[in-house]
Each structure stands twice: as structure tokens, then as C-alpha cells.
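Interim report to the steering committee. The following record documents the input for Putative 8-amino-7-oxononanoate synthase (478 residues).
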Amino acid sequence: MDLHVTLHGRTDLSGQIYRQIRAAILDGRLPAGERLPSTRDLAAQLGVSRKTTLDVFERLLAESFLLSKPGHGTFVADGPQRMPQTQPAPQQAQPSPLWQAMPPAQALQPRSTHPHDFMGGVTDKTRFPFEPWRRCMNHALRLQARGRGAYHDPAGEQELRLGISRYLGFNRAVASQWQDVIVTQGAQQALDLLARVVLQPGDIVAMEEPGYPPARACFTAMGARVVSVPVDAHGMVVDALPAQARLVYVTPSHQFPLGMPLSLDRRIALLEWAQRTGAVIAEDDYDGEFRFEGRPLDALKSLDRAGLVAYVGTFSKTIFPELRVGYLVPPQSLYGALVKAKQLVDWHSASLTQAALARFMLDGDFARHLRRSHKLYEARRAMLIRHLTGPLAPWFTPIVAMAGIHMTALLKPGIDEAAVIASGDAVQIGLYGTQRFYAESPPQPALLFGYGEIDVAQIDEALTRLATALRQQVPVVT
Ligand SMILES: Cc1ncc(COP(=O)(O)O)c(C=O)c1O
């Protein structure tokens, strides 16, 4: 790597080089152990005499900034010369007050290192068909190599939008044309775009409580006031919606994180309410494709006659979150503004990934993968229910969700969440509470059991061990 040194004029060249290398070492741009170019190369690079660079190196060696290893080169010496951090510069760049106060969307949750882990929000990569995916990636690479360099459509690659639109029609009963779909970087960007085009600072956004913190953070970052709306056994309590809400964020298929679906009555009430108030509804259907029992409830989007629901989906739960592909099917009236916002934010999502995913969908690999995953998750969910309603029933009341890849279980009155998590920890089981999903109201002690990554035999073994540990360590309150 070239060492970046800028020289002005023709005087004091060695002083200029000396000061710049020294400053780079002091502020850490040149870390300890970094090898410097030879004096000969540096002289040639800067267009100065070899004597000049030799003088600089000698001085830095004498002051212990550099270290010479004969036969190997000259290196940045280890630390003592680094200056203690002094007062911050008076004119440091600062984020706006809003961003200074912004919490992270979601602290990257530290994962347990336990072999049995109920982390939510992750999928089973060992079961992902990487071979077909590789074929699709190769296909995408060939396409990429053929085309001329150009920015693509901000709304996304046509083939992928077609794949998504067909999939939504078939799987989620959401009717759309490919022209209605906008490809995004995950559901998170879909929410961000919606917030940009719908909200003004000070607007009210209604969110379920408990709810999905990254959505809350996204609306807060737009300057909105997020108002929590309680949920009960039927999902969001529509009667408690603030009349002035401009946007309502809701997870109707599988309330996040508790799991109950929004009942049909509530869906209709929500749509009627939105028609009266003109509010936009963001329907986050993040894991509704995995439905295991009960009559399927239509997506809000498919009941929406007035054009108020923006449907948000993601491949994070069906493929894996690192893919960063999601989508939006907005009301027609918002479509143009959303595409402009998408272009403004990042021009378009990566066309290579889009093309590979389109192939994956249109070749039938995605449908096959979903069918296999569905079977796996169904067995895992059944095992979880068997334990939570059987040997673990003295401690837990599961909220038996019909869909999704996690299940939340409330703790029986008087049982301490931290004590249960600690008991799991002691027998090498990673358990996770739900406290961090509450913004305002006192959290109801509960655990979220993700079964995206833990297989059925591991669930059986882990929960058998957990029951034994709890019997010894967490007395049941009677
Ligand atoms: C409620 C909810 N929405 C959306 C997502 C997925 O977001 P993304 O597509 O940005 O990965 C998740 C993932 O955990 C989620 O829990």
C-alpha cells in the first residue's frame, strides 16, 4: 500500500514527511506493526532524494516511532509513543440532536455460545440448498458479465419482481402485478422508505406494544412520535389507536414478539378505522409463510379496498437475514414516491443478488426450500409445544402461535425471567427474554423460543434438561 504523504513546495521536505508519518502513527492511521515502504521506494513515490527519506527514517527510529528489523524492513513500533487523548477538538462534527439521542435500532443481541440455543430471528443455514443457490449465482454472474455497465431500475429487477408477485399471489393471497412490487434491502428498508414518504417530523406513528424495536427506531429517526398501542389475545387493540396517527405499524400474521394473529374482526376494524382517518397501514408480514394450523387469515393487504395498506415482506426468515432482500407492495398512490425514495437512498438493491434470487424463485428452488423448511419447522414447533404444555407447564404458558418460526411463552405469575434464563445458562441452553421489546409499559415476563436454527432432537434434549434444572432452581409459586 502507498503511504499517503502530501508535499507542498520544495522546502523542508524531510520535515514535512517526518511530521506526516509521525501524525499518522500518533492518531492510529499507521498501527503498530505496519510495515513502511523502503526509503528507496518512498523517495521514488514522493519524487524526493533518497537522502531525504533516509533522514526522516533515522529521526523516527531515534525517537522510537519506528523499529528496524534487519533483513525484513522498517515497521511502526509498539505503543509507548502514542500520545494520550487530549481535549476533544472544540469544533468536532456532531450529529443532529435527534441522532444524538437515537438508540441503536437493536443492539446486536449477544448470542449464547451454548450448543442448544433458542435464538429468535435466525434460520437454519445447514438446511439451505446452497448448491442450487450457487447455480443461480453463477447464472446471475453470467448475466452481469454480458450487460453494459449501467444503473438499473430502482424498483428492482423485473424478473425478481415477477417472482415475488407470483409468490405473493399463490402463497399469501396478495394480488399484485410485477409492476406493483418494489425490491428493498430487507423489510427494514421498506419501513424506512415508507416512513420517508409518509411522515413529517412530529407525526404520530402507532405501534404494537410489545413490538419490533427496529421499526420503532426507524420511525423515531424520521422525527415521528411513536405511540404504543396494547395488544391482547386478538392482536393490536384497534379501539386504542390514537385518532391522529398518520401511520400504523402492525404484524397481523404473527404479532411480534407475542405471536397471536390479528383476528378477522380486528382486521376489518383496523381497515375501517384507517379509511375514516386516512392513516397508512404498514403490514409487516415477516414470517407469515410458515403457517401450521388454523384457517389462514387473509393478509390485510388483500382486504384493503381503499388503498391504505403497504404490504412489507422479507426473505430474512425464508432464506437468511444476511441476504438483505425484502419487498414492498404499496398502495398505488404511494408507489411513485417510494421508488423515488429508493433511488435517492441507494439507487437500487444489488442487481447480482436480485438476479440470483429471481432465478431461484422462477426455477422452483425457493418453493422446494419452503416446503422442506415448513416440514422441519412444523416438527420443531410441535416438540416445543409438547414440552411447554407438558413438563415445563408449571413455569410457562405458551402463546401457541399458528405461524412463524418462534414461539413466546409467558412465565407463570411469580416466576422470575432472569432466574429461568440463568437456569438455562447453567445447563448450557441459550434462552432469551422479551423485555427489550417493550417501550413503555412494564414488560410481562416471557421467553421467546426461536426454532429457526435448533433441530427437533436438540429441542427435546434441551427442554428435558431445562425442566430438571428448573425443578431444582426455580420453585413454582402456588
Ligand atoms: C417483526 C420483524 N419484521 C421484520 C424482520 C426482518 O427484517 P429484515 O427483512 O430487515 O431482516 C424481522 C426479523 O427479525 C422481524 O422480527
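The first strand starts at residue 35 and ends at 36. The committee is asked to note this result when reviewing the revised timeline.
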